[in-house]
Amino acid sequence: MFFDFFSNYSKKRKLAKQLHELKSSVSFTLAADDDILEDSTRASLEKLKGELNIFGKKPSLADAPAIACCEDRLEKILPRKGFAHSMRNFLDVLVVACSVAGGVRALYLQPFSIPTSSMQPTLFGIHYIDREDSRPFMGPVTRTMMPFQARRAYVKVKSDGLLSERYSQWNRFFFFPESYFQIGTDSYTLPGDLFPQIVRYLKKTSPYYTAGETFCDGWLSTGDHVFVERLSIHFRKLKRGDVIVFNTENITSPTQPLGGYYYIKRLVGLPGDTLQISDNVLMIRPKGEKDFKPAWEFSDKFKKVYSLQGGYQGHRADGLLALGGELIVPDDCFFALGDNTNNSLDGRNWGFIPRRNMVGLAMVIFWPVSRRWGVVDTLPPLNTPTVMSSESFFQPHAMSLQ
Asked: Residue ranges per domain, the chain?
């Protein structure tokens, strides 16, 4: 007797669930596809909806044949099997997903890739990583992921000779740039643009190499990919030390053409600030104050810029902020510098950024998996001294360790 009761209870629950799903399917179709349903189909669905409502919420077992009949009728009105129906559902989901992603990108998060070295070592562009020297500074996860997120760059010199300044570049499979060059009479191939992306990071600045010497042994990283948060700048004031993305509309440089529509730099000057650089230190005098103060007194984020550790170099007096030069930031404008001060096209070259050009704040590095992976600009500098080369073209060796 107990088993009969349990069996009937189970059947009633199953029947009630079947009825609920039928009602939901009919109601959803009438609401979601109201503008594309044919009049005859809409009328049939309205009639079926009325018949299903007669059963109430708790149908009896005697209603099972009638409910099954309603299910068959729904299948004839709206066939829900086959390729066409599956493809339509897939396209519906795809359109919604793209719309949501587009809305998020337009209103809140936007991905960017860092192409140049101007913000290193806070954010890295395409750069060479020395395999052996970087070992003490890489965790096991980063080292394991390296073959999947960077291209191997290895050359052992075959015979004595000079590194030729002439080289050619081509794209393998359309999007993998490689460089062809010579040392002496022998030819070699490396990934990327040889001189901007590999040679400038080498420890050896002499162009002469001997047989058996290792020219490079490491990887060429594709650079950091970041999410930029676009919303908060409309509700809060920008701060000195923020890492910002802005567009270059109506911004020109007298020294060299700008390299793209979007730039990423560190915000150093607010409207009304007077700026100067002295002894590689940015000095700031806010509007209404009498004295200049070093940048680190306005934000702790500048402390690592002047740490002379891990590639940080301070700020070089150059361009509009050459020694003895002063700038006053106009109203509704800002001033920005790169952290890699010796290799950065920034406000020293092209001046001020109008407020309307601001895009957002760099928030998260989502690729590659490196020491910097995660929230932008939160790590201390790498614990190794910044040793500057005698030639400004060459980067501090600390750059190739991370």
From this structure: 2-80, 148-221, 225-367
Q: Is it true that the peptide bond before 196 is cis, omega within 30 degrees of 0?
A: no
**Residue-wise pLDDT tens digits, 269-293:** 999 999 999 999 999 999 999 999 9
pLDDT in tens, 102-151: 555 556 789 999 988 999 999 999 999 999 999 999 999 999 999 999 99
Distance of CA 42 to the CA centre of its chain: 47
Q: Residue 355's CB: how many other CB atoms inside 10 A?
A: 14
Q: Are 251 and 307 in contact (CB under 8 A)?
A: no
Topology of domain 225-367 in CATH is Umud Fragment, subunit A (2.10.109)
- The DSSP element (H or E) to which 6 belongs, if any, is helix 2-32
- The answer to whether the CB of 229 falls within 8 A of the CB of 105 is no
CB 190 within 8 A of CB 178: yes
Q: Give SS3 for 24.
A: helix
User: What's the full length of the chain, in residues?
Assistant: 402
pLDDT at residue 70, as a whole number? 79
Give CA 32 to chain center in angstroms.
36
Tokens of 73: 């009728």
Secondary structure (3-state) at 182: strand
Token pair 């952290």: residue: 339
What is the reported pTM?
Answer: 0.75
CA distance 76 to 72: 6
Q: How far apart, in whole angstroms, are the C-alpha atoms of residue 393 and residue 396?
A: 10
**CA distance readout (Å), 378 to 232, 362, 374:** 19, 12, 9
Q: Pick from 205, 158, 200: which is nearest to 183 by CA?
A: 158
Token duo for residue 276: 């100067």
